[in-house]
Amino acid sequence: MNIKELNPDSSPQAAFGARLRKEREARGWKQEGLAEHTGYSSTHISAVETGRKTATLRFARQVDNAFGVVDTGETFEREWREMKHGSLLEGFPEFVGYESRAVEIRLYEVGVIPGLLQTPEYARVLAQSAVKRGAITEEQADERIALVAERQAALVRSSPPLVFVTLDESCIRRPMGAPDIMDAQLTRLVEFADLSNTMLQVAPFNMGERRPFNLPITVLTMADRSLASYAESAQQGHFERESTCVVPLLTAYHQLQAEAPSQAASVDMINQVRKGTL
Asked: Which of 37, 95, 166, 175 is the most buried (most CB within 10 A)?
């Protein structure tokens, strides 16, 4: 049989396929053997390995299960996310993979509504503004909008995570798009707060120095109670899986929650902003 030579540098798809073949052969498996472990046909696997077919998220996860690399730093899911969302900051594609499996999500955001709570219209305003600045392409904008919807799917899975959100007051006061878009977004926040698995608080400007964070931060708790965090600036993202580094962030987040107004008071503030009475 003629085996097609692969050039991993030719494209992200080719790099994915080349690594898939390398890992399969390292285990002494033929394509039929990997097919048995993943539920995909050997023809499908051959097409992915040679770059004729692009892998899906489900395929990447099945491969991770077959190779026993789930919850490691070298998963095929991580490579798939980096391939699909190449315009995103370093560390973010890996973070999204963990976020989708977390049992508890704690996040603090400044300036904009976080992706997990964005309406499609709000997400599109953000993406299109980046296009107008020349920061991303139209195709990358569409990918970002699709990623928002993909991430939000984790909130309605059969066993949804507990989600704790604390927003800087700037998130609800900074207008995005037409007034009706912002109104719908603020309404979405109120609806989010009413869910049984969520907690929403707004950290007002007058918290001043009592605010433990100056930049956005997300802390994840996984099913095995391990911790992970993600933080980013304008040009750099950092995903941390070493729990000893994340514990101080979790402690600071608890301090933030203790200082911020209650959910009821926060929802009241959002409604007043929405109605223009505050």
From this structure: 95
